[in-house]
UniProtKB/TrEMBL annotation:
Residues 37-253 form the Extradiol ring-cleavage dioxygenase class III enzyme subunit B domain. SUPFAM superfamilies: LigB-like. Its cofactor is Zn(2+). This is 4,5-DOPA dioxygenase extradiol. Keywords: Dioxygenase, Metal-binding, Oxidoreductase, Zinc. The keyword Metal-binding applies. GO terms for molecular function: ferrous iron binding; oxidoreductase activity, acting on single donors with incorporation of molecular oxygen, incorporation of two atoms of oxygen; zinc ion binding.
Length: 277
């Protein structure tokens, strides 16, 4: 039997707090960052110490690309190993963070521009757990994922993200997880261990993206195909780029903007990440 206090907890949701939670775009790179002690994973660990402890984490991951919009709504999302060809150690990782079905329902109701399906089959893919397990290793903070509708363009996702803004007032850490420059077909595999190596086109467009973000000029970032050949090389498919659009969509006019993990990997990938707030 549902108690009155439980009913109130469900319907009232998370209370508003006195400050806006920061929002992040995180370049997640290789799944191996989830278990290795790298300059990238160390920065994720340090970042968690620099921002307020969130009431919950909501991740828009490049690796949940769906028809329509879905949000994980189970009590305990599974850890998904959505990759192949990596060491057994990586497949053995479990990140047993709880979900939050009430927050999932509340978030779905915020998104008036989309019919949001409450999902009980997905979980936390590597775009989420490889980052969050370094930030919150005790796995006690609820973690949810919001999918990316592959039938919609960047403007749609930017506008949809704006409807998530109120979650920042409730202590929800919103993370877009992907990579600004992500062209696996052009990776220089022999240069993966050289964090300073990047193709000229990749460095140029990455710097262009950063400049536009710093200037608050989001329109060219939304219409990225109009930025020329370098942008099309950086974004041959949109799934790793669109999480950045979600991050920008929940930006507040007073947010400070900073970049971290601003390195190239393998020539045609960048780990460049953004903190707003």
């Amino acid at each position: 039997m549902t108690t009155l206090s439980a009913f109130r907890s469900f319907t009232d949701g998370l209370p508003e707090q006195g400050q806006l939670m920061p929002v992040l775009f995180v370049g997640h790179g290789s799944p191996m960052n989830g278990i290795e002690d790298t300059e990238f994973s160390r920065r994720w660990t340090q970042l968690a110490k620099e921002i307020p402890t969130p009431a919950a984490v909501l991740v828009v991951s490049a690796h949940w690309f769906t028809k329509g919009t879905k949000i994980t709504a189970m009590d305990f999302p599974q850890t998904i190993h959505d990759f192949g060809g990596f060491p057994k150690e990586l497949f053995e990782v479990q990140y047993p963070a709880p979900g939050n079905p009430a927050l999932a329902k509340e978030t779905a109701e915020l998104l008036h521009s989309a019919h949001v399906e409450l999902d009980h089959d997905w979980g936390l893919d590597h775009g989420t757990w490889t980052i969050v397990r370094h930030m919150y290793p005790d796995a006690k903070i609820p973690v949810l994922q919001l999918s990316i509708d592959y039938t919609k363009g960047a403007q749609y996702h930017y506008d949809l993200a704006k409807e998530l803004y109120s979650l920042r007032k409730k202590g929800v850490l919103i993370i877009g997880s992907g990579n600004m420059v992500h062209n696996l077909r052009m990776v220089a595999w022999d240069k993966l261990n050289d964090p300073e190596y990047g193709f000229d086109w990749a460095i140029n467009i990455n710097n262009k993206f950063k400049s536009l973000i710093q200037d608050g000029n989001h329109k060219p970032l939304i219409n990225y195909s109009e930025l020329g050949k370098e942008a099309l090389l950086a974004i041959p498919t949109p799934e790793h780029y669109l999480p950045l659009i979600y991050t920008l969509g929940v930006k507040d006019a007073n947010d400070n903007i900073s970049f971290f993990n601003d390195k190239a990997v393998g020539g045609s990938l960048t780990m460049t990440s953004v903190k707003l707030g």
